[in-house]
Amino acid sequence: MKTPTHHLLSVSFAHQAQKQAAEAFACEFNLPCQALHKAQSELTLNFTEMQLELIDLSQNMKLSIDFVGGSLGHRKKYGGGKGQTIAKAIGIKQGKPVPSVLDATAGLGKDSYVFACLGCPVTLIERSPVIAALVKDGIERASLNIEFTEIIDKGFVLHNCDALEYIQAIESNNKPDVIYLDPMYPEKKKSASVKKNMQMLQKLLGHDLDTDKVLEAALDKAEKRVVVKRPKGAPVLQANKPPTLNYESKGTRYDVYIIQSR
Ligand SMILES: C[S@@+](CC[C@H](N)C(=O)[O-])C[C@H]1O[C@@H](n2cnc3c(N)ncnc32)[C@H](O)[C@@H]1O
């Protein structure tokens, strides 16, 4: 797995009890490790008794994943539903079976979680070991909650690997209905619309410049459609065909490529 070489990143632990786990992660990915109060890098992946968290020490900001409470839990209870734009984009229709979704750029797993709440079995692919570790921790904590059991039972499986390799290896009898892509997009300066969490992600990961290739592979391996999430006004990704249609919601566009039956 690709090692995060970001010089701004280290691993830390809140108490001695988490030292061993933190050191094991740091050793696997060749990162410095120390107690939190000694951390000097801008970003640190901090092991605590309660959760795994990414801390931006320069802005005193913390990011951890909560699939049960917080904004995601709120969206599950009160938002969403089959009428939301993202549901239409992946082809959800009243009275039709829900599609299986391969989220090839899972990030913090928010969109994946929306698909799961709509009833879809979801496979999450995330290449950053740091982000994947945060999502894995979120899944493990949520699994203790009865409300999350249904989602786990339908399928909510994370793989820390590169999407291009994963997609290329999909066999013809095992194609996901939908392959979903939401690459990091170069933002103009620090716009107010870039949420704080996304700013931390941009600091850690930079921009995804190789998504055209992932899209080509996805067009070959999706059973029904490929969906690419873009900021409104952004150019479409390069591919050997244009999107079949698109959906727009506040600030976001979903480019949909319908796969003709082969
Ligand atoms: C904008 S974020 C996705 C946010 C996500 N949709 C959410 O709802 O939280 C893009 C993520 O895709 C990951 N990514 C980009 N290219 C990838 C690839 N080829 N394989 C696996 N992950 C990739 C990046 O590491 C980053 O975490």
UniProtKB/TrEMBL annotation:
Main location: cytoplasm
Localization per record: Cytoplasm
GO cellular component: cytoplasm
Binding sites annotated in the UniProt record for S-adenosyl-L-methionine: E126, R127, D182
SUPFAM superfamilies cross-referenced by the UniProt entry: S-adenosyl-L-methionine-dependent methyltransferases
UniProt entry keywords in alphabetical sequence: Cytoplasm, Methyltransferase, rRNA processing, S-adenosyl-L-methionine, Transferase
UniProt-listed InterPro entries: 16SrRNA_methylTrfase_J, SAM-dependent_MTases_sf
EC number: 2.1.1.242
Pfam families to which the protein is assigned, alphabetical: SAM_MT
S-adenosyl-L-methionine is among the record's keywords: yes
UniProt GO molecular function: rRNA (guanine-N2-)-methyltransferase activity
Reaction catalysis annotation: guanosine(1516) in 16S rRNA + S-adenosyl-L-methionine = N(2)-methylguanosine(1516) in 16S rRNA + S-adenosyl-L-homocysteine + H(+)
Role description: Specifically methylates the guanosine in position 1516 of 16S rRNA.
Cross-referenced PANTHER family: RIBOSOMAL RNA SMALL SUBUNIT METHYLTRANSFERASE J
Recorded family membership: Belongs to the methyltransferase superfamily. RsmJ family.
Record protein name field: Ribosomal RNA small subunit methyltransferase J
UniProt organism field: endosymbiont of Galathealinum brachiosum
